[in-house]
Amino acid sequence: MRDRQSEQACARAKSAGLGRKSLLKPRDTFRRARSKNDRGDEIELNLHFKSPYDWQTIIRFYQSHPIPGVERVVEDSFERIFRINSTIGFLRVQALAGEPQLKLRIVTGNRRILCEVESRVRKMFDLDSDPVLIARCFARVPVLKKLSDRFPGLRLPRGWDPFETAICSILGQLVSAEHRSNLVAQLVRGYGDEIVHPVSGAPTRLFPRPEVLAKAELSEVKTTVARREAIRQFSRRVLRGAISLSDTQDLVAFRKALLETKGLGPWSAEYISLRALGDTDAFPKTDLILKRALELHPDLDLAAVKPWRSYAAIYLWKEFAQSLSKRKKEI
Q1: What is the mean pLDDT of residues 153-172?
Q2: Cα–Cα dist 185/241, whole Å
Q3: Cα 157 to Cα 22, 66, 165, 257, distances in angstroms
Q4: Which CATH superfamily is domain 4-128 in?
Q5: 243: pLDDT confidence band, cut at 50, 70 and 90?
Q6: Which of 159, 201, 282, 286 has its CA 20 to 30 A from that of 129?
Q7: What is the location of CATH 3.30.310.20 in the chain?
């Protein structure tokens, strides 16, 4: 039986226009405030999660892997514009100090999309993960137990939209995070639909649609010919239905479909599965950092932590980042 708090949350969800199929979690709460502009309502939701939760690591990831012009990190908050069907909106996500929840602010003229926005943000920040369960699984492997004790509450940083995330991952093949961001910025400027920002009113652009990228020459993007062709091929296969972006599909079949796309190899298949669909067992073992980690920890038994190998990758990447930061401070 639902408790009184759950019933009140559901009632408030319906009154705000989320409807009967709201994905609002039982302990999630929200309030509606009058918008400060004429572009739609401003609504705030408090999204709960299971502690511990390493907010700083995930927000720093989004800061170093942005979609310039579409999303950014400002003063420890994540912001982005979005389009759901024909509705344009804006959102901001920030941590609430001392509370096991994030605050989500949404500006939109269509309250019917609130359910979809809430669901996407929960996935993007991996709010439904159980860190205690994963730590218990990692306790079987000494290396991972040490890392989970050292860095409690790491999460999988997914993207807002699987197509966006996959394209950005393709542009990020074998380049630095900074160069990847420059390439993504060129893609958005050259091929994204121009809109009016829902809050500032300034002209800006959305991430390009697959039907645009499937036909574009992509000359505005200063990357390799092979990578441009991979973007076109991926976009075409998504449009034809040869690649599904549903996170409820058979993920082994998804990775196979990616490998059948010209220009996508094992790293791309595993990394896109991890980031775009939240595949908890993907492990891009050909990644340079992970290869070094496996050489450093030859006794690391990844089979023992299935189906949580993606979290093992996150912890190994975190270990490398910390060691790199330490070396820089010593120089």
Answers
A1: 98
A2: 27
A3: 23, 12, 11, 22
A4: DNA-3-methyladenine glycosylase AlkA, N-terminal domain (3.30.310.20)
A5: very high
A6: 286
A7: 4-128
